[in-house]
Specification:
Blueprint lengths: L10 E4 L5 H10 L2 H8 L5 H13 L3 E7 L2 E10 L6 E9 L8 H15 L2 E8 L4 H9 L3 E4 L4 E6 L5 H27 L3
Parallel strand pairs: 4-5
Antiparallel strand pairs: 1-2, 2-3, 3-4, 5-7, 6-7
Length: 192
Amino acid sequence: MMHEPLVVGGVIRKLWSSEALLYRDHLLRLAADDRRQRFGLEVTDDSIAAHALAAFDTGAVVHGFFIDGVLRGAAELHVLSRTPPVEGELAFSVEAEYRNSGIGSALFGRTLLVARNRGVATVTMNCLPSNRPMQSLAKKFEAKIRYNLADVIGELKTPGPTPISLWREMVADGSGLAASLIDAQMRAMRVD
């Protein structure tokens, strides 16, 4: 099942490696409890900065939700294996004031599309037992949920790529490229 609701007032697009600092800034804006929910443990500012830079070095695909050129939500897809069956892992973060507006669902849908097109057969996401919104999101996308003492694991099976799914990603990437150029232009014109 593919969900991709439109998010009014913002743009969802892939981040380029040159935008790692935007990703870092987004993660640093998360409150302490939100950081713990995102990473599964307490993390320092330095750890977050290192993670944001490393995400692009490890080949992760990061989608972001932007409002007025500012990254307010993100989803990471890490492909864990290249040999069949290919496995991937998802992680999400949305700043508190932008939650409950469909951003998580839109990021999830876009990230699943990319996973599908890369031949990822199984996608997992881990979260803390207290992270009920993440568990609800996983259930919305029909993930199989397993509860452990330390974490909750959602697992999804994805269909393989099709010409239509590849086309959808290509169109989204083209729109995203245009949006990133507009965002860069707006940032360059901003006077602080």
